[in-house]
Amino acid sequence: MTGLKIDNLTIHHQGAALARLHGHIPPGQVLTVMGPSGSGKSTLLAALIGALPPGFSTTGSVTLNGRAVMDLPTQDRRIGLLYQDDVLFPHLSVEQNLGFGLTPGIGKAERRAHIHAMLDRIGLAGLGPRDPATLSGGQRARVALARTLLAAPEALLLDEPFSRLDQALRAQIRALVFELAATLPVILVTHDAEDARAAAGPVVDAMGNTLSL
Amino acid sequence: MNVAARALGLAPWALRLGLGLPIAAGLAGTLWPALKDHGFQSLTAWPGLPRAVALSLGTGLASTLSALVITFLLIGCLGGTRGFATFRHLLSPLLALPHAAAALGLAFLIAPSGWIARALSPWATGWSDPPDLMILNDPGGLALTAGLVAKEVPFLLLMALAALPQTDAPRRAAIAASLGYGRAMGFVLTTLPPLYARLRLPVFAVLAYGMTNVDMALILGPSLPSTLAVQITAWMAAPGLDHLPTAAAGAVVQLALVGAAMALWRLVEHLTAPLIPALALRGRRGRALDAPLSTLARSLALLIALGLGTGLAGLVVWSFAGLWQFPDALPDSLTLKTWAKAAPDLTATSLTTLGIALAASLAALGLTLATLEAEARSTRPLRLEPLIYLPLILPQIAFLPGLQILALTLGAKGNAATVAAAHLVFVLPYVWLSLAPAYRAWDARIGLTAAAMGVSPARIFWHLRLPMLLAPVLTALAVGVAVSVGQYLPSLMLGGGRVETLTTEAVALASGGNRRLIGAVALMQMALPAMGFGLALALPRLAFANRRGMLAERGPA
């Protein structure tokens, strides 16, 4: 079965259920989790990525393209992650940041070609040698997206990735993300209804209840 | 990869053993001969004991209390002003200053033939020869106390400044001021209690050092009787093994004294703590205190800065001095003769010192990094801090005699590797203190982002965390080198006279009269740590010259 299948995933802390998610996200669909801060959205993302702090436990199961992922370490889950900050590695150039994400075992020339093709696709051709700190906010967001996708994830988690961008840039970057991730199941965590509408998929709260916009 | 991950899991145990074993062995090795060979009987038979005990307690408590009060005075009255920022920048390099060099500088300043006497002679004093006064090595230990205060105020001040942001000081000061409180009174009522709570460990380290140090006490302190620690060292160094039990018994007494002093300190803390809320309840605004107190604070800051500064300048001038007769303020001529003559020995000693410092600091850095990384990857906190801080609070003189006896039995005494291993015990806490906050503050999302891309933990460590933390890592290494270079007792006791470091050399020369040579050795002793800090500042700037995000994220000073 392709896509991300979440079967009654529940996160517990000290006996209480903090967050719950259930459903099947086929490739190309965006599931939006909406709610105010502190509602358990980031706990849900941490559980899916495999980075729950000690003291939390989960029940239920998650399969990605047929693989059960909840018992795997973060490295082996193949779930990409984008934060609201770009979290670019400050000591590496734009190119090196992208190269860091690229899967190993590809020849040097081919790596360069991959990186340059990706820079082209995100409209930053020629900016490879630049220091990430010298890029604009929109450019940095694009690089972060490109880096995540070069690691060839099978699903994508977006943790309020547009909330730091201004209005005009926001729609632009959002469109780019959904365009480049068109073949992946995507979970978008946001508190912005505009993001949820643009995602054009089902919308739930952190307890898995369906919301209508 | 799996082997590496398993080795990493052993790092916390290596650290526990590396610190715990020498300390336990040293304490046991000290206690055993003290009990077995009537050490306590011969110790109590020594007539100088009561005086030595009083000196140890007196100089330790007086210097710690003064340094703490001055630290609070400086922060409370001058904190936040522009002059204070300058003063702070002047202070930071003083941390790298070895105790012995500071003591020698001060000795050159206040000795009967020192710069102060020269500046006042003969026009004010009428002296044409150095007076026969016991200013240095005074029997009451005043010179020693002053030296300790001058050296420890910069340390406590920097510790306090590092802790200050956690006390929300600026907002508290603003609120106190808006309620009409004077600056000093506002500081005492709102910021001092939480600040002191965070300063207790450094204060106890200062107290333990003040009571038990040997290098500063040999240079500035009284003799016949000297402080207890100096006397123990003399017994340890005496030819033959006859005095070993006495020395060991003295070390046990010294340890008990430090414990008693800390207990007394806690008791006074406990008794004085209610005074501050009581003062707050009275509502006195204390505006009139600000002017005199800030004048006092400024004068004390100036005195300490001038004392250390001119003392160090004195070392420099002496090392280049030609003929320099009393009461001339400056030498007749400057010459490179001292340096040229000392160069062969000085080079060898400097290389030994540097080799030991690098070995101990690199080992400490490796252990610290491996343990912090193991902690970052484990789900439980490791709670290593109490053990790591133990060597800061435990007096060296209490367990080094035991270690010396152990090294002697194992035939390991007198080689540089043994000295470096002993240094590791004292270098590790400072390397840890310097690196751990930055290591733990590293943005975990960076690691998680990389992990989500399928990057292994080892690759995250070597390619992301370590390069991003280059500045704090190099600073920690420089701190380690500075601490190792400044060590006197471990080098003396485990080197057994066969391993000469700059510090043992400087202290050994102090009793002789060759000021030119003392100046040169002390200068080298300062130069090594200074070079370390210089490199720690310059290298990250060089490596990340084209990475603005890295230069903004400098580690804590």
Describe this protein's structure.
The complex is a heterodimer of chains A (213) and B (557). With 213 residues, chain A is of the alpha/beta class. Helix content of chain A is 33%, strand content 24%. Chain A is built from seven helices and nine strands, in the order βββαββαβαααβαβαβ. In chain A, the strands form two sheets. A five-stranded parallel sheet of chain A has the order 6-7-8-3-9, sandwiched between helices. In chain A, strands 2-1-4-5 form a four-stranded antiparallel sheet, with helices on one face. In chain A, a hairpin with a 2-residue loop joins strand 1 and strand 2 (16-25). Chain A is globular and about 50 Å long. The relative contact order of chain A is 0.21. With 557 residues, chain B is mainly α. Chain B folds into two domains: 1-32 and 336-557, MetI-like fold; 41-333, MetI-like (MetI-like fold). The longest helix of chain B has 41 residues, at 337-377. The chains are: A alpha/beta (213), B mainly alpha (557). The interface between A and B is medium-sized, with 33 and 28 residues.
Feature tags:
heterodimer; A: 213 residues; alpha/beta; Rossmann fold; 2 domains; 5-stranded parallel beta sheet; 4-stranded antiparallel beta sheet; 33% helix; 24% strand; globular; B: MetI-like fold; MetI-like fold; 25 helices; 76% helix; disordered C terminus
CATH class of the largest domain in chain A: Alpha Beta
Overall body shape of chain B: globular
Estimate percent helicity of chain A.
25-40%
What is the average per-residue confidence, as pLDDT of chain B, rounded to a whole number?
A: 90
Low-confidence stretches of chain A: none
